[in-house]
């Protein structure tokens, strides 16, 4: 990571990040209300519902904290560092066009974003219990939030880059049973693939809506 080290001024929290921190916490809908919400939620009309087998859900609930976070508590931070190393443009995006020149391993903003990722997946798995509607809604809303980083250059393919690097760390986990390890990695792949695809879809929808609104605005009067 030597190439990632240098110096910069302290980073400020942008309005986009503040909004992300506020909305990153999602409440699990009750069984009695989920059907009604599904008919009115914009994400359910534009995004396929999340589906996962019972066995895969059990594996994620068993090993996300016990194995992944126990062995690699910094997995999301390391993943972000690898993404920046692969695509330095991410540094500028995260810093909201104020390129950070410091030792990125000690960048507070990157630490916060990494912790938010860890917390987000923990909520999907342990608080939302990988419920189809709850996961679909949470992921789609997060995609809408990420679209606000488009003004700083965020592109959907960065999510695919993130997923690829994360899977690289999953492959390094130690399991007593190799078959269980393979099944856990596959389960996590199902989840992260859904997350990236749905966030990409939300990003695309927001882009289309922004373009439509721009066309509706009246042209400035001619001189």
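Sequence proposed for the structure above (223 residues):
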């Amino acid at each position: 990571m030597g190439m990632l080290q240098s110096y910069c001024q302290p980073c400020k929290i942008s309005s986009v990040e503040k909004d992300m921190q506020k909305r990153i916490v999602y409440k699990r809908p009750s069984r009695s209300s989920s059907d009604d919400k599904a008919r009115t939620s914009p994400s359910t009309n534009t995004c396929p519902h999340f589906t996962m087998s019972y066995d895969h859900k059990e594996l994620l609930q068993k090993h996300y904290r016990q194995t992944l976070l126990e062995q690699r508590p910094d997995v999301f931070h390391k993943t972000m560092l690898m993404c920046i190393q692969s695509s330095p443009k991410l540094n500028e995006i995260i810093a909201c066009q104020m390129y950070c020149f410091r030792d990125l391993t000690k960048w507070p903003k990157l630490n916060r974003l990494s912790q938010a990722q860890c917390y987000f997946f923990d909520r999907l798995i342990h608080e939302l219990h990988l419920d189809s509607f709850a996961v679909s809604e949470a992921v789609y809303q997060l995609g809408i939030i990420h679209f606000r980083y488009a003004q700083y250059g965020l592109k959907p393919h960065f999510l695919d880059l993130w997923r690829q690097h994360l899977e690289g760390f999953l492959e390094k986990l130690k399991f007593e049973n190799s078959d269980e390890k393979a099944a856990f990695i596959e389960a996590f792949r199902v989840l992260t693939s859904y997350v990236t695809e749905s966030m990409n879809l939300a990003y695309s929808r927001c882009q289309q809506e922004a373009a439509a609104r721009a066309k509706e605005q009246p042209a400035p009067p001619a001189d």
